[in-house]
Structure formats: C-alpha cells, structure tokens
C-alpha cells in the first residue's frame, strides 16, 4: 500500500481532528467536569511556571493555590520559588490538581519535573499540561523542547491518560512575539510572522491505588515543605 497516495480516514490523522481551545483554563475546566475531578474547596492546586499570563488559581478561588517558578515573582500571586526538576518542596501525595500552560518547553530536563509532579499528586489527583508541538523559537529565558501528545504523556510514568491531542486554535495566527526583550521575535516574511502554531495537551489522573515509595516518604520527613 502506498501511504503517500492511499486515502485514509480522518480518524487516522489526529492533526485533522484537533480540538479548538483558545483558553487553556477553559479546556482544563471542561476535562475536570467531564472526569469528575473538579477541585473542592480547600483543594491544593499547583501551577508550574505560571508567572506569565492568566493563572488557574483565579478559576478556583476557594482552593489553596501556589505557582511554582524559578523566579519568586512580584508577590501578586502565591509563588513557591523552586526548580521543579529537583525537589519540589511539597509533601508526596498531597496535591489535587497540577496545571501547566506552555512551560514544559522551557524546562531543560522535563522528565525530572514530571517525576516530581507524579510524586506530589495524591491518588485520584489530576494533571493538565499544554506545551508546543510547533511554535516559533522563544528563548524566554531558554527554549529547549517541542512535544507531541504521546511525548507529553510518556513523561508522566504511572499516570492514566484521560484526554490528549492537539490544539490547533492558534495555527494560522500571525505570532511574531510579544516580550519586551524581543527574545521571542522571529523574522517577518511574505506571510507575516510565524504561522504554524500547534499545541499538544494531556489530561491525566493518578490511579487511586497508587502508593508513595518508601524513599519519598522518608525524604518528606527530613525536608522542609510548604503548608499543604
């Protein structure tokens, strides 16, 4: 069979069935409703790299929300300054929902950050991650990776994938960059700016029967943690 010319069903090509979500928070909320994981009051919500743009904490004002970032921020949102590829200062199995929007491409070793996220999620906890599959180079501060949905899911070993795919809402937008330091700008040609914008996403759950490894429980005893 010649796959270059043989007609194939649309369902065989996930890029032709991409979802259309301009608002990642809306997308995460829909999946939380669909899969029964909407955070209850006082639930612990962690955002990875939420210092730029809208924060998921505003969507669930009754929750306990913290943003994790290398930068301490300006104090406008509750921020835990840490490197997610090392030890996140939160006890194992205590987080209800982890959210990350367009941050993982800036993490040098995303598999280490993913391992820490799996550790801090409680059994039954949910995860939503969106990251670029095709996007302009934007070193703010450094740009390392691009991810397919399968690549994102493979990072979070031990979690169940409930939803995954491409978000093509931004595909033909003229995105030339917007940061003042111009580190994310691209050359402008006859088409304008960068016009092949695809995002990948995963929505995952930690199995209810998941156990915290002994070495993580022991580390929780000797490492300082933020209130949870």
Strand order of the largest sheet: 3-2-1-4-5-7-6
Estimate the mean pLDDT confidence: 87
Structural class: alpha/beta
Regarding CATH, which class? Alpha Beta
How much helicity do the residues have? 10-25%
SSE topology string: HEEEEHEHEEH
Largest sheet: number of strands, sense, barrel closure:
7 strands, mixed
Radius of gyration: 18 Å
CATH topology, anyone?
Answer: Rossmann fold
Number of strands: 7
Number of helices: 4
Distance between the termini: 57 Å
Q: At the fourth CATH level, what is the homologous superfamily?
A: Vaccinia Virus protein VP39
Bulk shape: globular
Summarize this structure as a short list of keywords or feature phrases.
single chain, 228 residues, alpha/beta, Rossmann fold, seven-stranded mixed beta sheet, 4 helices, 7 strands, 17% helix, 22% strand
Can you characterise this structure?
The protein has 228 residues and is α/β, with parallel strands linked by helices. It has one domain: Rossmann fold (3-Layer(aba) Sandwich). Helix content is 17%, strand content 22%. The longest helix has 11 residues. 32% of the residues are buried.
């Amino acid at each position: 069979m010649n796959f270059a010319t043989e007609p194939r069903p649309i369902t065989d090509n996930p890029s032709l069935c991409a979802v259309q979500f301009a608002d990642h928070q809306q997308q995460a909320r829909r999946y939380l409703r669909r899969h029964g994981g909407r955070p209850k009051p006082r639930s612990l919500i962690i955002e990875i790299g939420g210092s730029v743009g809208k924060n998921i904490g505003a969507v669930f004002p009754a929750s306990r929300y913290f943003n994790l970032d290398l930068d301490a921020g300006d104090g406008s949102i509750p921020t835990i300054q840490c490197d997610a590829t090392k030890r996140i200062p939160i006890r194992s199995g205590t987080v209800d929902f982890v959210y990350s929007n367009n941050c993982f491409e800036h993490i040098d070793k995303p598999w280490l950050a993913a391992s820490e996220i799996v550790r801090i999620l409680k059994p039954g906890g949910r995860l939503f991650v969106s990251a670029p599959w095709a996007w302009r180079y934007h070193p703010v501060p450094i740009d390392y990776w691009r991810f397919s949905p399968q690549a994102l899911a493979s990072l979070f070993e031990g979690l169940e994938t409930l939803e995954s795919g491409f978000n093509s809402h931004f595909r033909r937008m003229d995105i030339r960059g917007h940061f003042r330091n111009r580190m994310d700008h691209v050359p402008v040609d006859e088409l304008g700016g960068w016009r092949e914008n695809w995002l990948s996403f995963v929505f995952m759950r930690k199995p209810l029967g998941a156990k915290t490894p002994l070495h993580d429980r022991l580390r929780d005893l000797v490492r300082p943690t933020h209130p949870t």
